[in-house]
Design brief:
By secondary structure, this protein is α/β, with parallel strands linked by helices. It has 13 helices and twelve strands. The strands form two sheets. It has a seven-stranded mixed β-sheet, with helices on both faces. Strand 4, helix 5 and strand 5 form a beta-alpha-beta unit. Helix 2 packs parallel to helix 8, helix 3 packs across helix 4 and helix 9 packs parallel to helix 13. It is globular. The model has no long low-confidence stretch (mean pLDDT 95).
């Protein structure tokens, strides 16, 4: 089954009772049992729900994985993964990652005896010196948020596998339409489903996809025991959103390329961070592991003036100032004060995240309108 067909059909079956083509919203908390201990596979909706099951099967198919698990948010999914570790275990992560991930690692889990290292990963072999006997997990984002660094998943996975270390890839920016980490050797994929997978800025959800049966069983136990599960209405919305994922991502990529090139040519713009440029440090890696370069772009203005950057953002019409990304509408954000405010300034600077950096999530509007908005805001 090809990708576009998977988005529409994987995990989705006509309702056996009515023949409904769309998966019903099973808005129920509990299920009738025929006899004590005898049921149709469903007892309580925190544990299992037919709408959620359909979405989990769909997500697993899109990432070419065996098991899919959905959570109430991307951070709830991250929380579940870290709960499979033990005090004294160590996680090596990239030094450029989503602020919420950094926050849950350092502010929530460090006090339970887990250790976290944040290192540059653009050179896959460079992580070798950071791995120890205590390292149990390598956590990757690629492209990274918000600096758009590209990490060679295959290279990192080979280094980690030789040491018996598992690799998790946050695939939120790329989606399985552009990049499939399990095929490149990763052990697990994490998604903030809130973003491109849902695609319409109307749901909050996270997901994990993997092939390891034992790890999936442990995570399924945590999913049920901790209870951070999405409701059936949210699962329905994501199933609906995914049906157009391939079409939306095509337009995100087309518009993203046009915006990136317009920014690069503008006299007020200093640096543009987008992996589609041949000048990008890991452009060749991006070409090899991605099918296109996505709709996420970060840039700075000449002079590195924070107030000037905010003034440009305030002038945008179609690029709405807002948290999040990946919806059909274009958004602009100020990472230093929004998505990455929980990362200490000195740590942000180490990864190149200046206070004047602007991040764009390029939507699927008419490109002429987006370019006009860009030019009027920049002046």
């Amino acid at each position: 089954m090809k990708f576009a067909t998977k988005t529409i059909h994987a995990g989705v079956h006509p309702d056996p009772t009515t023949g409904a083509i769309m998966t019903p919203i099973y808005q129920t908390s509990t299920y009738a049992q025929q006899k004590v201990g005898e049921h149709k596979g469903y007892e309580y909706s925190r544990t299992h729900n037919p709408t959620r099951d359909a979405l989990q099967e769909n997500l697993a198919a899109l990432e070419n994985g065996k098991h899919g698990l959905c959570f109430a948010s991307g951070l709830a999914a991250t929380d579940a993964v870290i709960k499979t570790l033990n005090p004294g275990d160590e996680v090596v992560s990239t030094n450029d990652l989503y602020g919420g991930t950094y926050r849950i690692f350092t502010k929530v889990f460090e006090k339970y005896g887990l250790k976290f290292k944040f290192v540059g990963m653009t050179d896959g072999n460079a992580i070798k010196e950071h791995l120890t006997e205590q390292t149990k997990l390598v956590w990757i984002e690629t492209p990274t948020n918000p600096m758009m660094h590209i990490i060679d998943i295959k290279s990192i996975a080979e280094v980690a596998r030789a040491r018996g270390i598992k690799v998790v890839v946050d695939n939120t920016f790329a989606t399985p339409y552009l990049q499939r980490p399990l095929d490149l050797g990763a052990d697990m994929v994490m998604h903030s489903v809130t973003k491109y997978m849902g695609g319409h800025s109307d749901v909050v959800m996270g997901a994990l996809i993997l092939n390891d049966d034992a790890w999936a069983e442990e995570l399924t136990f945590i999913q049920n025991a901790s209870g951070a599960v999405p409701g059936p209405q949210d699962c329905f919305l994501v199933l609906r959103g995914i049906k157009t994922l391939h079409l939306r991502m095509q337009r995100h990529c087309e518009n993203g390329a046009a915006v990136a090139k317009a920014l690069k040519a503008h006299p007020r713009v200093d640096k543009v961070y987008w992996p589609g440029f041949e000048s990008h440090p890991n452009h060749e890696v991006a070409k090899a592991q991605m099918d296109d370069f996505g709709g996420m772009i970060s840039f700075t203005l000449k002079g590195d003036d924070v107030e000037e950057a905010k003034a440009v953002m305030n002038k945008f019409i179609y690029f709405t100032i807002a948290e999040s990304l990946g919806g059909v509408e274009s958004l602009c954000g100020h990472p230093a004060s929004m998505t990455h405010a929980s990362i200490p300034p000195e740590e942000r600077v180490k990864s190149g995240l200046l206070d004047s950096l602007i991040r764009l999530s390029v939507g699927i509007e008419d490109i002429d309108d987006l370019l006009e908005d860009l030019h009027q805001a920049l002046g």
